[in-house]
From TrEMBL:
<feature type="domain" description="BED-type">
    <location>
        <begin position="16"/>
        <end position="91"/>
    </location>
</feature>
<keyword id="KW-0863">Zinc-finger</keyword>
<dbReference type="Pfam" id="PF02892">
    <property type="entry name" value="zf-BED"/>
</dbReference>
<dbReference type="GO" id="GO:0008270">
    <property type="term" value="F:zinc ion binding"/>
</dbReference>
<keyword id="KW-0862">Zinc</keyword>
<protein>
    <recommendedName>
        <fullName>BED-type domain-containing protein</fullName>
    </recommendedName>
</protein>
<dbReference type="GO" id="GO:0003677">
    <property type="term" value="F:DNA binding"/>
</dbReference>
<dbReference type="InterPro" id="IPR003656">
    <property type="entry name" value="Znf_BED"/>
</dbReference>
<keyword id="KW-0479">Metal-binding</keyword>
Amino acid sequence: MSSSRAPAAEGGAGKLILSPLWNHVEKISKAPGGGGNYKVRCKFCSKIWSGSYSRVKKHFLGGGFGVKECTADPQTLKIFKTEHENALKRKGYVECS
Ligand SMILES: [Zn+2]
């Protein structure tokens, strides 16, 4: 049995819903300096970096500086993108092009 339903992480369950991609990294420690930054390890490619949720997003969704994109298979990354988009919808807005 492999349940992917993660227990509520520190920081509050409400926050977790808006930040689903935290579920795919492991928080190793709080980064020095605070500000909501963490040292994290990707559960898929084992890459380690420090930063906020926006860097986690860039790792999985691409298009960022400072963080390499995840090398997980494209199918998996597509699921992450959907999770991210669903979270935005729950928040009450949709990113339009
Ligand atoms: Zn990765």
